[in-house]
């Protein structure tokens, strides 16, 4: 009996990688992938899972981006595959996403038209629907450039009763950093 003992294929394995772990929301980061490949076999990568972190591999770089409006702990798992396509090792990137203040966004308004009409002496109601995931916005209602009302809400309303004439009604939405 002759026993032929074959070497075990030790596919490529990840080495320590120097990836930035404290990242800003919606900011792309990149780090070089370090792989030990003792047998010189062909290999490839795939993203096995993602949690609040969008990841992709380009050549030997891991590119990752915190998802929009995501904060806190995030991760993605990258797998290195041997020549037959089976996983030989995996690497989990754990990151901490810090919030970035997004500008408030006016989702809808009433009236929708640029020019609104109202009978003299009758009240015309103006309203907004605002999206701001980071804060409660401040809304300043102006008539002909003069502030008439200020409120902190995502569904502001303003009522106006005037004599016959033309008036410019504006709403300035601010989160303290950005105006819409």
Description:
The chain has 180 residues and is mostly beta strands. The chain is 0% helix and 51% strand. It is built from no helices and 15 strands. The chain has strands at residues 13-14, 22-24, 28-32, 35-36, 44-51, 53-58, 61-66, 72-81, 87-98, 105-110, 124-131, 138-143, 146-152, 157-160, 169-174. The strands form five sheets. It has a four-stranded mixed beta sheet, with no helix packed on it. A three-stranded antiparallel beta sheet has the order 3-7-6, with no helix packed on it. Strands 10-11-14 form a three-stranded antiparallel beta sheet, with no helix packed on it. Strand 8 and strand 9 (87-98) form a beta hairpin. The radius of gyration is 28 Å and the shape is rod-shaped. It starts with 12 loop residues before the first strand and ends in a 6-residue tail after the last strand. The mean pLDDT is 90.
């Amino acid at each position: 009996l002759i026993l032929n003992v074959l070497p075990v294929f030790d596919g490529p394995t990840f080495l320590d990688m120097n990836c930035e772990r404290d990242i800003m929301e919606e900011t792309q980061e990149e780090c070089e992938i370090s792989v030990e490949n003792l047998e010189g076999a062909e290999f490839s990568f795939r993203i096995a899972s993602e949690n609040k972190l969008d990841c992709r591999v380009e050549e030997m770089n891991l590119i990752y981006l915190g998802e929009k409006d995501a904060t806190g702990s995030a991760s993605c798992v990258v797998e290195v595959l041997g020549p037959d396509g089976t996983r030989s090792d995996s690497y989990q990137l754990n990151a901490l996403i810090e919030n970035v203040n997004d500008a408030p966004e006016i989702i809808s308004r009433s009236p929708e038209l640029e020019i609104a009409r109202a009978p003299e002496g009758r009240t015309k109601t103006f309203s907004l629907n605002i999206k701001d995931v980071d804060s409660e916005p401040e809304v300043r209602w102006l008539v002909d450039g003069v502030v008439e009302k200020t409120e902190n809400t995502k569904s502001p309303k303003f009522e106006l009763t005037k004599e016959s004439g033309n008036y410019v009604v504006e709403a300035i939405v601010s989160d303290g950093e950005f105006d819409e």
